[in-house]
Structure formats: C-alpha cells, structure tokens
Amino acid sequence: MPKRPNIPCKHPNCPKLVAYGEKYCEEHKSLHLDEIYHKEKGAGKRLYTSRWQKVSKAFLKAHPLCERCKSEGRYTKATVVDHIKPHKGNRKLFWNRNNWQSLCKQCHDKKTLTEDRNGSMSKVYEYPTQ
C-alpha cells in the first residue's frame, strides 16, 4: 500500500516537511504544546497509564493529607495527586514530583475549575519557585 506524502510543518514560515498526521516538526512541536494538547483529544489521557496509577497511589500513601485543607487548619484525607502547574501534555512536567501535591477531591475540583476559567493558575495560586 502506498505511503501518504509528507506535509509542511504548520509553524509559520517553516519549510520542513513532517509525516502525514503530524502538525509540527520536532523543532517547533514544543512551541505548540497547548494547541496539540487541547485539539487532540486524549493527549493528556495517554499520560495517565497504569504506571501513573501505581506512582500516584504511592505518593498518596506518603502524603495522605490534603495540602490545601492542611494550610487552612483542617485535616482531610487526600484522594487525588494534583499537578501544581498544569502539565498540558508535557511529559517532563507531568512526571516531575516537585510539581505534585496531594489534594482532596473537593479542593482538586475547585482548583481545576479555577484553572479552566482563568486559563492559568498564576492568578489564583503561586507556583513554587525552583
């Protein structure tokens, strides 16, 4: 069966060709992670594998209390491992344990809703500097 021809990279003025089905060349792919993550349904889901299930379960065991509740003087069992800074499909940020925190479902839903409304958490939460 014949192979489909390569197509131009969609980055403005980029002359490189990419395989059919790809949008950007390797040089420009990292510049368009937001677009790739949001347009290709399931891009983030591919990161939530059985490996993630095991690692997040171990993280919750080591950090059993919700960080947000704890900072407000309440002691609530954490049920979700949250990415402090949204990873948007970035594997390096996704697996960076310094970017994880334990949250209860209520705090996680509240944080996620705020992220979705603002498009960025920087207005609501301060990210730790490292």
Number of domains: 2
Shape: elongated
Mean pLDDT: 82
| β-strand number | 4
Low-confidence stretches: 120-130
Spatial order of strands in the largest sheet: 1-2
Tally of separate helices = 6
Gyration radius (Cα, Å) is 19 Å
Strand content: 5-15%
Fold and architecture overview:
With 130 residues, this protein is of the alpha+beta class. It contains six helices and four strands; from the N terminus they run ββααααβαβα. The strands form two sheets. The chain has a two-stranded antiparallel sheet. Strands 3-4 form a two-stranded antiparallel ribbon. The longest helix is centred in the C-terminal third of the chain and has 14 residues, at 105-118. The model is unreliable at 120-130 (pLDDT under 50).
Keywords:
two-stranded antiparallel ribbon, disordered C terminus, single chain, alpha+beta, 130 residues, 6 helices
Q: Can I get a quick summary?
A:
By secondary structure, the chain is of the alpha+beta class.
Write the layout of secondary structure elements.
Blueprint lengths: L6 E2 L8 E2 L7 H4 L3 H7 L10 H13 L4 H5 L8 E4 L7 H5 L4 E4 L1 H14 L12
Antiparallel strand pairs: 1-2, 3-4
